[in-house]
Structure formats: C-alpha cells, structure tokens
User: Fold these one by one.
Assistant:
Number 1:
Amino acid sequence: MFSGVKPTGHLTLGNYLGAVRRWVEEDQHRGEALFCVVDLHALTMDHDPARVRRLSRQAASLLLASGLDPAVCTVFVQSHVDEHARLSYLLECVASDGEMRRMIQYKEKTAQAVASGQSVRLSLLTYPALMAADILAYDAVEVPVGEDQTQHVELTRDLAERFNHRYGLTFVVPRAINPPVAARVMDLQNPGSKMGKSHDATAGIVYLLDEPDVIVRKVKRAVTDSGAGVTYDRAGRPGLANLLEILAACTGKKPAALADAYAGAGALKADTADAVIELLRPLRARHAELSADPAQLDAILREGAARARSIARPVVDRAYRAIGLLPPA
Ligand code: TYM
C-alpha cells in the first residue's frame, strides 16, 4: 500500500475525508503500508522554498496527528529517498508525450499558470511519471486516494504493464481505491470544483487546522441551491449534496438518508459544522503536542526514510537491470 500528499498548501477536509482518514482507520493495518509527504511534487508550480519546507513538516505532523502510527506503518518524506527520482526517469522513457498531455490535472494547472502569467514547468508535464515511480518503487498493490487521483493511478498501471511487457516482469500493477463516500469533497463556495489546498480563494475550503469558529463560518456560508427542502442530488443540487456527503462521512450515515432528516439547509449546515469540528478536534490537539517536539518528528521521518529506502532500492535496481543499464561492477 502506498499513498501520498503534496505539501503545496495546508491540508484540507478533502484530503482528510478523501484519503488520510482511511489510511488511518483501515489501510495502515492492512499489511505493509507507506505514506509519504511528496515534496518533490510541490516544485512543479511556482513555489517558495521556505514555505514548502514548512508545509512538508506540517503535513508529516498532521498525518501523525490524524493517527498514522509509525509502529505499524512507514511515514516519510519523498526527497529523503533517492529511488523516487531514479525510477521516475526510467518511467519517462516508457511514457509517451501524448499520454502525459492528456492528464486532466496537467491541463487544468497549465491553464491556471498561463492565466496568471507564469511559465509552465516541464516537471508539471512529467509529474505523473514521478507519481508512478512513487507507487511502483514499493511494489504497491493498492493506492488509496481521492477520486481526483484515479487518472494518475490508471496511468501508473499502464506504465507498469508496458514496462513489464517490453522488459520482462518487473513491477506489480497497482490499483486505486477510493472511499465509499466523500471521495471528492467540493469547494463550499463553488460546489462545481473540488476543495483543493492550492486554491487562492479560501472561503470555501475547510483546513484541518481551522479554528472551530472559522469552520462554523465557512460551512454556514456554503453555497446551496435554492429550492424547497433538502434532497441528495449530486448533479442537480451539488451544494447540498456536498454538505450531505461531508456529514455522512463524519457520522457514518448515508447521504440520502440524512437528506430525509432535514427540512432546510440551515439546520443541515449547523449539524455539518458541528460534526466536522468534533471530527477534527482530537487531530488538532495531537498536532499541537507534536509541534512542541520537532526532534520527535525528525526521528520518525528519519526512520521512515530508512525503511522506505530498504524496500525501494531492490525494486528500482531490478528495473535498472531490466531496462538495459549496466550494473555497477
Ligand atoms: P494531493 O496532495 O492533492 O491530495 C492528497 C490526497 O487527498 C485526496 N484529495 C481529496 N479527496 C477528496 N476530496 C477532495 N477535495 C480532495 N482533495 C485531495 C487526493 O485524491 C489524494 O489522495 N498527486 C497526489 C500526491 C501523490 C500520490 C503519489 C498519491 C504523489 N505521489 C502516489 C498516491 C500515490 C496529489 O497531488 O495529492
């Protein structure tokens, strides 16, 4: 099992419900599991070095605060393990330019960069090769992600199959797994687009470290469609559907069943805000404790990187041999 989070912004409720929470509750207990702060991926758009460093520590700390337990899984930082970049290059030699350009995130982010007058970094195009390397270096079978990452995992499968076909069986072919509800949490102000940590407008984004009163304000101001009552209709009433899914994810109930229980959006918003605050309360407290002891975090990340390296090294060496590179004498 392998998954990762990119330190391009503060972690959001989308990251938590779509991915991290399941890593904690289920995935880390299902065999060898690695969870990574993928800092190299944060360099694909304009970035501030000090901020990336800060956000990388914060992301690692939030993963632990969420309940990833270094005694049962591996938590580490991507750039601490050279095998990711080593393998990425081989996968660039297997991937085609056309399939990289077809990635939705590439198209969206390229449009964003162009609109704000920035040049597009080449690494934005090759990003999915690095992501495939993250996964394939660990012989991962399952990749627990939110819905938006499914296309990248599909590409990873294609690259693994192509490599195996051309150069002999080398990689395990992984598959994406999504949570049953809240696999795509939407922006509260703009329920047509996903809640994303790197977005500029923050009013529709709940961050894991938001204070309770901020969460109440953001949820209360969530855009919901006019119309009578509360119904669960993702296409027709996306704002309400988003709140219902968030509440469902927090309470373990079904969104459609919850819709029946509400007469109007006001009460739904109040309950959703409360449920989110309660869900995040222990995480915030644990994050505060961890932040007070940076040496402990460093030690966990050091051990995590050593463990990750020991798994990835032989896999990547295997790929180097298979593709025709001369092993060092
Ligand atoms: P990232 O950092 O954007 O998101 C981390 C995880 O959170 C999920 N997620 C969401 N789920 C539901 N609703 C949302 N609004 C939402 N926003 C984010 C993402 O699907 C993801 O699971 N490219 C990846 C990081 C990555 C990776 C990997 C993941 C790099 N290498 C290898 C898995 C395996 C990314 O940008 O995730």
Number 2:
Amino acid sequence: MKVLVAVKRVVDYNVKVRVKNDGSGVDLTNVKMSINPFDEIAVEEAVRLKEAGKVDEVVLVSIGSAKSEETLRTGLAMGADRGILVNTDDLAVEPLAVAKILQKVTEKEQPSLVILGKQAIDDDCNQTGQMLSALMNWPQGTFASEVALDDTQVTVTREVDGGLQTVKLSLPAVVTTDLRLNEPRFASLPNIMKAKKKPVDKLTPAELGLGEGDIKPRLEIVQTQEPAKRQAGIKVVTVAELVDKLKNEAGVL
Ligand code: AMP
C-alpha cells in the first residue's frame, strides 16, 4: 500500500514574525523556515505505518518554490521513500490551488491514503485536506489523534469539541493530523545523509495538466497588521486598592 503525505515549507514556529512596513504581508527575509509541524506529524505517522508493515511506500509532495526541496529532504530523513516537488515559483498558492495540484498528484500516484496536516501554521486555513477529499470524492477523517489502518479501511479517532469521535473510512481516503497523533522523531545524521540521495521528482502545475486559471490567487490581501501592543500594567500596594481598582476602574467586580 502507498501513502502520499503533503508537506509545506512554512516560517518556523519559534520565529516571531514581523509585518512588512507597507502592511502587504509578513517579512520573510532571513527568516528560518521549517516543515509545517502538523505535516511532520503526518510524515511520522506514515513512516510508523511503514515500519509496522502496513505500508510499502511513503511518498512526500510539496508545492512551492525550489526551496521546498529542503522540506522534502527533512521528511525523507525521517524515513519517507521519495519526494515530489511541484514548483510554483514564488506564486502564492491558496488552499484550492494546492488541493487541485494534490488531486493531480493523487491521480498519478494512486495512493490508498493521503495524509495532510490539519492546518498550515502560516495561513491557518485548515482547508486543503477537506478540499482534496471533495475533489477526489474520497472520504475524509480530519483532526486525527489516532489512526488504525487495515487492508480496506482506516479507523480515525478525531479530536472534536468536548471529546473524541471515531470514524471508519473505506480506502482510498484522506486523513488530516492533529497535534496529539504522535511525537515526530528527530532524524539521525546518517539518515539525513541518506536522504540527500533519495529521489525527488520535479514537476510544474502545467506538466500536471493545470492551467493558470486553476492556480491563480482568488483572494486579495487587503492588509496585514501586528496584534495591538499590550498596555503596561500597574502595581498596587494593598488588597483594598486592588479591589477598588477592579470595581471602579476595570468594572469587573
Ligand atoms: P491549510 O489548508 O493551508 O491550512 O493546509 C493544510 C495542510 O495542507 C497542510 O498541513 C499540508 O499538509 C497541506 N498543504 C497546504 N499547502 C501546501 C503546500 N504548499 N505544499 C504541500 N502541502 C500543503
């Protein structure tokens, strides 16, 4: 059985992002980029399924500039077998465009399971997996905190408001990962070296049969703003003063 995993190159989660002076977006100059954390969990899950003998091949796909190859290499060092880079240069690809590209790759690769992150931490869209499932007309199990795979179906425990929901999907299917699904491994140095030699196919949306209209942005970013700065606090000397301020200034008592 083959599993396809979608991995996105995003600003590292430890970086405090800055907005460009003209408010047109986030400044990416000299910023550390990494694999999207939810996608790292997706790769880990696929590799564990392979180690358990349930999956024969783990294929990664990333859509973006040529630099997304680094993201693929990170996943390959964790144990995936090969990568596919769909080069969209610096064009901003929105979830629908990504989903259409993933649809073409899925049709070409014919995996039994596609695993994506529940959301990319740069756009926080939480849309691509759902859109891919709709385009493929495959069942979806989103926000997975547990995945059990057998030959014909996958059982997904989902993190929903106030509890867990378990769904059974017949294969082929789309699964998106939540934070508690697993703890991704650190790639060892020998595996990082080995990953440099693993194959990465390079494709363009046109080679997958997609036109400009399929991938062009549909949204216009009007403005990007930093969150409002926190106001400085004050020190009070007595409890009575605190209660007075809460009552008469803050109005919360
Ligand atoms: P989003 O809908 O943008 O929040 O992204 C959800 C998931 O879709 C991510 O966690 C990735 O698995 C996948 N995805 C989104 N954009 C890309 C991309 N450019 N390349 C590869 N996978 C992507």
